[in-house]
Design goal:
38% of the residues lie in helices and 40% in strands. The protein is α+β, with helices and mostly antiparallel strands. α2 runs parallel beside α4.
C-alpha cells in the first residue's frame, strides 16, 4: 500500500510540472526564432548596403568583363554581363546598350543587333557609332538603300572620328561593288588611299574590285564519241553580273551529230541549234528566283521551246519553300510540269529537301513523282543523293553525285540506279585548268545502250567594263 501511495504521488508531481516545462520550452523556442530573424534582417541590410555602395563599380566592371568575354568569343557570358550593365546604367549612359548590340552583331544575331541600334538611335539620332554600326549590319543583310543613308548621315556628322569616316567610305565602296557600280567604287577607294596609302582594308577592297568581272564571254567546243554516234558541240555564253544578286546569261549552241544506223550503211548527219536567255537572283536568307527561255531548231524535226520559272523563299532560318513551272514543247506535244517542295538545313554543311512534281501532256500520260534529296558540302567538296519514285510504277531511281578537288583539278562523278528497269548508269568527269581562262574537260559515260568519251576545251574571257554603262 505504501508503494502504491508513493507511485501515485510521483504521477501527481509529473502532472503538476509538465505544463510548466512546456511553457518554458515554448518560450525559449520563441526567443531563438526571434533572435534568428533579427540576425537575418541585419544580414540583408548589410548586403543591401554593400551592393548600394558598390553599384557604380559594378557597372564599370560589368562593362569591362563583358567586352573581355566578347573578345574571347564567350558571347553568352558577354551578353549576360552587358545586359545586366544596361539595366543598371543611368538613363543618359548608352555605353552598355551599344556594347550589347555590338556583341549580338559579333555573335551573328544581326536582327537583335539591328533592333538595339534602332532603339538607341530613337533616343540619340546623331550617335555616330550607332549610325555606323547599323549601316554595317544593314549592308551585311543586303539592305543597301538604308545602309547608304546611314553611311551618308555619319559622314555628315561633325563629331565622327577619322576612323569612322574611313569605315563609312569603305562600306559605301563595298555596296557600290556589290551593285556593279565599279568605277564609282574605284574612285572612292583611290580617294581613301590618297589620304592613307597604307590603309589595308582599302587595298584589299581594291584587289577584290579588280577581280570583279561585270561580264564575261565563255566559249566551248566539245567532241563526244561513242559506238552509236559522234557529236560535236560549239557553244557561246555571255554572262552579265547585273548586281551582286542578279545574273543574266545569253547563249547559243550548235550541235552536229553523225550517226550510222545498224540496219543500213547510210550515215545520218543531224544539226541542232539552241538559243537561250536566263536570269537569276539570290539574296541570302530571302527570296531567290530564276527564269529561262530556250528555242531549239532542228531542220529534220519540228522546232521546240522550253520555258522555266522557279522561285524559293525562306520560311524560317532553316526551312525554304520552292515552286517551279516548266513548259516543254513543240506546240502539239507541249508538256507542263509543276513542282513544289520544302528544303531543311540541318547545319551549314548538311541540308535536305522533298519535292513533288506533277506533269501532264506531251507524248506521255500524266504522272506524279516524289523526289527526296540529301546534300552535304564542305569547302570545295560536295555530295548529293537523290531518290525519286513515280506513283503507279514499281521501282525507284537513286542517284548519287560527288564533287571532289584533286589538287588543282576538279573530279565529278555520278551513279544512277533505276530499280524499275534494273539498269545502272554512271559518268566520271575531270576538269583540268590549262592556263588562265582555259580549261579542258574529260568525261566518261556509261549506260545500257552505249559507252562514250567526251573531250572539251573551254575558254572564259573577261570583257572590258567600258563595253557596258
Amino acid at each position: 500500500m505504501v508503494a502504491c501511495a508513493s507511485s501515485d504521488g510521483h504521477r501527481n508531481n509529473v502532472r503538476t510540472y509538465l505544463p510548466v516545462c512546456r511553457l518554458i520550452a515554448q518560450s525559449r523556442l520563441r526567443v531563438f526564432v526571434s533572435l534568428l530573424a533579427q540576425l537575418l534582417a541585419v544580414g540583408c541590410l548589410v548586403v543591401s548596403a554593400v551592393v548600394s555602395a558598390s553599384s557604380a563599380l559594378t557597372l564599370e566592371e560589368a562593362l569591362r568583363a563583358g567586352i573581355e568575354a566578347r573578345g574571347n568569343g564567350d558571347f553568352a557570358r558577354a551578353i549576360a554581363l552587358l545586359s545586366g550593365a544596361r539595366s543598371n546604367a543611368p538613363e543618359d549612359d548608352f555605353r552598355a546598350t551599344l556594347e550589347l548590340a555590338v556583341t549580338f552583331e559579333w555573335s551573328g544575331a544581326l536582327l537583335k543587333a539591328e533592333d538595339i541600334y534602332r532603339e538607341l538611335l530613337k533616343r540619340q539620332p546623331n550617335n555616330a557609332a550607332a549610325n555606323l554600326s547599323l549601316a554595317r549590319v544593314l549592308r551585311w543583310r543586303w539592305q543597301f538603300e538604308e545602309a547608304l543613308y546611314r553611311y551618308e548621315k555619319l559622314l555628315a556628322l561633325g563629331d565622327a572620328s577619322d576612323g569612322m569616316r574611313t569605315e563609312a567610305e569603305l562600306g559605301v565602296a563595298q555596296i557600290e561593288r556589290a551593285e556593279m557600280r565599279l568605277m564609282s567604287a574605284q574612285r572612292r577607294l583611290q580617294r581613301i588611299l590618297s589620304i592613307d596609302p597604307l590603309q589595308a582594308d582599302a587595298q584589299r577592297e581594291l584587289e577584290l574590285l579588280a577581280a570583279t568581272e561585270q561580264h564575261r564571254l565563255n566559249l566551248e567546243i566539245a567532241r563526244r564519241t561513242s559506238s552509236v554516234h559522234d557529236t560535236t558541240t560549239f557553244s557561246a555564253q555571255w554572262t552579265l553580273l547585273q548586281s551582286a544578286r542578279t545574273t543574266l546569261r545569253i547563249g547559243a549552241a550548235r550541235t552536229a551529230t553523225t550517226q550510222q544506223p545498224i540496219a543500213t550503211d547510210t550515215i545520218v548527219n543531224e544539226i541542232a541549234n539552241i538559243v537561250y536567255a536566263e536570269q537569276s537572283a539570290f539574296t541570302p536568307g530571302s527570296l531567290a528566283w530564276r527564269w529561262r527561255a530556250e528555242l531549239r531548231d532542228r531542220p529534220s524535226q519540228q522546232s521546240g521551246y522550253l520555258v522555266i520559272a522557279e522561285a524559293s523563299d525562306a520560311v524560317s532560318p532553316a526551312i525554304r519553300a520552292n515552286v517551279a513551272l516548266r513548259i516543254d514543247g513543240p506546240t502539239e506535244l507541249t508538256r507542263r510540269t509543276i513542282s513544289g517542295g520544302l528544303g531543311y538545313a540541318f547545319s551549314r554543311s548538311l541540308d535536305s529537301g522533298l519535292t513533288l512534281f506533277v506533269s501532264d501532256g506531251g507524248s506521255k500520260t500524266s504522272e506524279t513523282t516524289l523526289v527526296a534529296r540529301l546534300g552535304w558540302s564542305q569547302e570545295r567538296v560536295s555530295a548529293q543523293a537523290f531518290s525519286s519514285r513515280t506513283l503507279g510504277q514499281s521501282g525507284s531511281k537513286h542517284t548519287v553525285l560527288v564533287n571532289v578537288p584533286v589538287g588543282q583539278y576538279q573530279l565529278r562523278s555520278q551513279f544512277q540506279r533505276d530499280a524499275a528497269a534494273k539498269t545502272n548508269a554512271w559518268f566520271v568527269a575531270l576538269n583540268v585548268p590549262l592556263a588562265r581562262g582555259f580549261q579542258m574537260n574529260l568525261q566518261r559515260d556509261s549506260n545500257v545502250s552505249e559507252h562514250s568519251w567526251t573531250l572539251g576545251v573551254a575558254a572564259a574571257v573577261a570583257l572590258p567594263r567600258a563595253w557596258l554603262p
